[in-house]
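Q: What would this complex look like in 3D?
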Amino acid sequence: MILPDFVQRDVALDRLNTFALPARAAWFADVAEPAQLAALTRAPGWRELPCFVLGGGSNLLLTGDFDGLVLHVCIPGRELIAEEADVWIVRAGAGENWHEFVRWTLEQGWPGLENLSLIPGTVGAAPIQNIGAYGLEMAERFQYLEALDLATAKTVIFDRAACQFGYRDSVFKRAAAGRYLISAVTFRLPKSWQPITRYADVTRELETLGVTHPTATDVSDAVIAIRRRKLPDPAQIGNAGSFFKNPVLDAEAFRRFITRYPDAPHYPQPDGTVKLAAGWLIEYCGWKGRNLGPAGVYEQQALVLVNRGGARGEDVLRLARAIQDSVQTTFAVALESEPVVL
Ligand code: EPU
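A: Here is my prediction, written as structure tokens for the whole assembly.
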């Protein structure tokens, strides 16, 4: 197969995933502009080559070498594309660092994304799992995204409905999985801004900071302080954030659960279902701070699995399965893992 010059052979992915798991890609390309994908699709044999689109690698579990082409999205750019009476419309290249983008919007005086501060990863990865934290999901600020069809290199626009956002979920994890490279995302930041401070952690942190009428930057600073305390910095200890989704029970299953565990934190959803705190379930089973080989459960937040040093993907998977078994046996609740497994 003859691939364009910008494609490299046999590249280590260890530094490109925040879990710091070892793996190599048979082929690898930094994609900084959509035209590169068009060049790739003209290469003979392109259709037979398995492709994987990599952003910041912060929601990824690498289980071994990848015998295909890793497309590492580096597309830059951030701009105000329109200002309307009630909103700022802001577009960012998929390769932009998410947190730097959030802070940049705040510096420009466009609030709205502050609750999502310090989430690792790129702008392009944000819609895939509809990142969310401290009372806000990305979907609430989303306008549309541009994605390149990997088969044709043509740009396809996905509006909010087309993305089918759910809790840590979108069409890009289901029907459209593996078919697109998200190249840019456009957000709607409302001018009638109100701080979202209903999460107890945020309220407490603002009190500690002595803030009574928070600005968006105050909320961002509070979220940063909470995350630094509770979540491990991937630069210091390998991890992919929450490893499991918080499980959602139907009303009947929740009634049975809460009768037995009345102290369990729970969050009623608008549709009548109830979300449980997976971290609480895992801690109850005694896993918090424990290790299984070189993989462990973070001391400050049981929802986060960590690489204690030298872990391979299979070590993390073994620990994840042991936790899922414990939670299933104890509570009859299934835990679903969150990261993409490759
Ligand atoms: N809890 C425990 N033990 C633990 C962890 C949590 O008992 O080890 C309890 C807490 O005391 C609290 C409840 O569980 O009552 C919820 O904990 P927390 O507020 O820390 O949030 P979470 O449900 O564990 C979710 C997101 C995080 C996000 C926070 C804040 C998921 C899978 N995770 O965690 O997202 O930052 O809420 O909004 O929804 C991520 O996705 O990578 C992530 C970090």
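A: To summarize the key features: The first strand starts at residue 8 and ends at 12. Residues 133-134, 201, 230-231, 241-242, 245-246, 265, 277, 279-280, 283, 288, 301-303, 338 surround EPU (CB under 6 Å).
Q: Very helpful, thank you.
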